[in-house]
Amino acid sequence: MEMTRRDFIGSSAAFAAAGMSSQAAGQGAGRDEIRGVLLHMGMNMWGEWRAPGEEAVEGRRYTRDEVHFSEDVWNRTIDHAKKRAFNMVVMDLGEFMAFPSHPELAVKGSWSAERMQSEVKRLKAMGLEPIPKLNFSATHHMWLKEYSRMLSTRKYYQVCADLIKDVSEIFGRPRYFHLGFDEEKLENQRKRQFVIVRQGDLWWHDLLWFVRGVEKLGSRAWIFSDYGWHHPEFLTKCPRSVLQSNWYYNEDAVGYDVEKMTDWFKPKLRLFADLDKAGFDQVPCPSNWLSPKLKASGRTDNRDCAGQVVRYCRANIAPERLKGFMMASWTDCRGEGSFKFNCDGMDQLADAM
């Protein structure tokens, strides 16, 4: 039987208390470098949402109506993270969880709040800090179904506030809450039928609204930093309290010499040092994902990214502001190939650190 939000709030009190205890332990462990891995439980962040009755267009990628996930693959991936001395798992939730406040967002196979709560407890017992991620970028929020087309309306804000509160309770007031907020620009949506992008003051209004909402519940907001690549005001407008994950995936053939890079790639690498000078805490994000840019250059794998990002960031970010690193392989947790790819990414980062 699905649990309502009211039922869940009552049943989560004891877990929240336990979560605070675990969080306190995590704060102590947090003095060490974060060795994090981003794992995708939900996958409805890259396909178009199709309204009921809306005809599909051949060749377009749509969101799934059931989870794309294997519990066996997930468990083996988590075991590998533990084996390689990772201490944090950033869980990209999306449609994977049946939210007590909005069960209409669930798909076939979505985990209940109780099941997710049990997994959070299991990870903590293994010494892995579970961090929730809900991506609220307009490029990656199709897991919100019809609400994704209500961006920046009263209904949208209410739904998002409900979801953040649900997740905060289920995770026992996590130390961090990842909000995504990456790639919100026309370039990343140009092939879609429905395009919606915030910009200017509205983008800032919504980012700050989400940051305040997370902070009110006792967590620290965490975002991807790519908005700062081409918006210099990011360094002054974004609150210093927001944990930053700039990402760089070896996209430019000249490697890590900023001055030799093209004007398009230069800001991506330079942002690490710019964020440090502006006083932000950072968890840089490498990947073993092979970008189209690398494929075009003849590369067949991306095996040196983690090592180069770790070396570059340790040389360009003050130790007190470099909180650790997070590997993002950008694959699912379903098939054997994805299992090996996630493990390969973790191995690269573990070896680099």
Structure description:
With 353 residues, the chain is α/β, with parallel strands linked by helices. The chain has one domain (5-352): TIM Barrel (Alpha-Beta Barrel). It contains eleven helices and seven strands. The strands form two sheets. Strands 3-2-1-7 form a four-stranded parallel beta sheet. Strand 2 (88-92), helix 4 (113-125) and strand 3 form a beta-alpha-beta unit. Helix 10 runs parallel beside helix 11 (336-352). The model is unreliable at 11-30 (pLDDT under 50).
Q: Which secondary structure elements does this structure contain, and how are they paired or packed?
A:
Blueprint: H1 5-11, H2 13-29, E1 34-40, H3 71-83, E2 88-92, H4 113-125, E3 129-133, H5 154-170, E4 176-178, H6 200-216, E5 220-224, H7 234-237, E6 243-245, H8 266-277, H9 292-296, H10 305-316, E7 324-328, H11 336-352
Parallel strand pairs: 1-2, 1-7, 2-3, 4-5, 5-6
